[in-house]
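SEQUENCE-TO-STRUCTURE ENTRY
===========================

Subject: a protein chain together with a token-level encoding of how that chain folds.

Sequence line: the amino acid chain in single-letter code, read from start to end.

Question of interest: how does this chain fold, as expressed in backbone structure tokens?
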Amino acid sequence: MTRGSAVSGVVLVVALVTVAAAPGLGAAAGIGESSITPSTVETGVPTTLSIEVPVTGVNTGDGTTDGRVTVELPDAVDLSGASVTSSVATPNATDVSGAVDADAGTVSVTWDDDAGSTEETLTVRLAVDGVAVDRTGTFDVSARVDADADGTADVTTAVGEITAAAPGSDRSVTGTEGTLYLGERGVDVTGLDGANAAGESQQFYGVGGDADGVVAATDTTLSVDVTAANRFVPGSYALSSAADDPVVFVRRPRVTDLSLYAGASTSAPDVTNRSVPQGTDTLTVEAGFTFDDAENVTVSVDDSDGLDVTEQLTASPTITASGGTVALDVRDLPVGRYEVTAEGADDLDNASRTVPFRIRDPEKAVTLSKTRVVRGENTIVAVAGAPGDVRYLRLSGTALRAGELLNTATAREVFDRTGQVQSVGVDTDANVLYAVVALDDDGISEVRLRTDRLVSDSVDVESAPEIDAPVEDDVTLTVEERAVTVASPPPTAVGDDVTVTGTAPESERVKLYAAVDGAYVPLYDDADAETLAEPEVAGDGTWETDVDTSAVVDLPETYRVVAVGDPDPARLGGTEPIDSETLRELDPRESATLTTVEGALSLVASRTTLAATGTDEFTLSGAAVAGRDDPRLYHVGPRGTVDARTVDASADGFEETIDGIETRGVHTFVVVDQGRDGAFAYADGSGPSPDELLSGRETRSAAVATLLDAYTQPGSDDPIARVNVTGVDPSVSVSTPTDGDPLPAAAVPVSGQSTAEDGTTVFVELIGGDGTAARTAEAPVTNGTWNATLDLSGVQTGSYRLAADDGAARDSAAVTVAEDVTPGSNSAAGGSTPAEVSTTGEATSTPAGATSTPAGAATTTESEARTGPTTTTAATASSTSSTRFPGLGVGSGIGAVVIVVTALAVRSWRPRRRR
């Protein structure tokens, strides 16, 4: 039970009222020494009150009837279930009766005179059962006397007090205002002005601080749990929804200060975070805290193994008021490091503060707070000696990592420039780096030693009176490689999983935290925030975990991520954030950065031009914004018609197959995803339908603009992507190499374009003058192009037509296959002359399936009619490169061939033909 949780003792107020007798009228009635039993009751618990009121100066001989004593009870007393079980008035009174008036809050006793004297003292006693005091506190009870039954009180005065306490509660808060502390339980608030009576529920209406607008609640005013489960947060509260003035103030409990002094009082030297020599008698612990009206603070001491040694040091570890102290008997403590903790003694143990101290060897001049550290971890070097002395702390240059320079800048990175450090430097001749320190009044100086630049090995820290003096004392520091590493993952879209890896060869499990809003919050590896990112360490010392960025790290920014190796079992599985002070106590640990970015929305069409036949298909694909619902897809046709649908998206993106494009022109596809608010800016509750936006008479560009406006209104962050696809008449084209360069033996590449869908087969034919195909090939359409190879081995020289047919359209070009001329041949010696290749200027329009014009047939185009035919003679080998096929020179049994495009055909198309 904490302070203020029980009320004991009996309070008895005695009232004696004397009224002087008027001349000739005798003495007036008065009230003598009265009593109320019990004077202390339990709040809200019905009890029996025994009340005794002596009435003096009563004339019991004049035959008065209905003389009366009325006891007035305070509003805190509930008489609704009370009844008078006995009533007495003695002597010389008859027809005595008692009554309860619950509405008036009174209990009365009436009597008739019975031939008594003129100045009788009439003792009135009554017992009232079922009386409940509904509020904690001390309350006055008064009585009034109407002995002559004339309806006017002869005297009214206080006759006693009733004190109500709530022993079942941790403490009671009474008065016009009260302070509660977040985390405390079982608080009785019935004594607060405006609070509901004992046993009733109570709502607390937040009117200030973090509580503004919050409504907290409790089942009973006798036992309030000031917890987050009851929706309490720090701030001020009123007890009525109509009130603005606060009555209850909820605070976070804090241990504001914890100091250690090497002596029996706080006037001794402050050794907080410092050391004292072994054999020191007393350490005084002083704690300041904000909740001494609610709970005590308990002081505890742990040794370097984490064992509690408090009972060895004090029999009274409790501090009852802020600024109070506890004396620790430390004379028998062995050399080592210790931690002193002050925390709430009961419910408020979440308020705590811990500070270390060390017991040092009195023979040692230099000691370390940690003799074994992971590189990057700090240790405190304590130097002891006579007050005012100066000491040099030295490290050999061999203690530095490879690549570190022995210079003053490096020394400053090793020795922290704290207040007791006079200077830092190096002596290159002696190969040392040093810090000069001045000893305090207690003969102690402390320096923080950073180990980032030290080698992973045993390092000697020396103390000497001069830079070049012999070693006075030294201590060995073991620096180990970092026990935990964590790699910074690449930037990740919010909502995606990101893999975080690292090493922890000396740990079994790693727990990940992220710095968010001033605290370190555990990370999760699933979107439901059910499984924590606490990977096991593999046999080779590595660890790996997924981190879901839709929880904790769910805003686009860069976070500090901390990996902790083997946190204590109480933290594994824990979801509570920790503060930076707590994090610093976790070891080993390492940090990296995790950058989250706004998820990108993309949209790509597998083809941007296709035949508007209604049967061709293409795909729309892209990346959705991770972690959101499925995006919406709009198809705006060339005439402004709009179709809407929802597409299925996953972490890998989405892909939709589109067909039915029958209208020539530009088709715009728009995809919209939800922004970070998790809602679409337009028609969120009724799906993607644009019916409310569009009349159906808009142009394509107007319809697209209206859609975009609907999703880009102020305050919206819905991501949008779009792509255009053009529907055209079916077409196919064919082309051949015409630059005259040598081609691979017997192989001629040909290619072209097609509006047919991917995978459609293009049939390629080299057609002779008789309409028969001298060579054929097939090629699939891929992204609107096709490529094939014609083997022209054995083809006779002459004029041909090269045709391509994709089933929906056909194209052809007139070509000439000419005999090659071997370089260096002499026509005068009987060699062949270079074959002439003519460009006829012929233009044709050939339906698919029709035969080409026979070789050599006379055709006249509009161009020829104006200018006449144009001929081009192939250059000799001495001036240009002719097309040659190795091994097929002059005199060969099989003539080498050259294909030259002689005309470009006018493209034609017809309905698609399936093959």
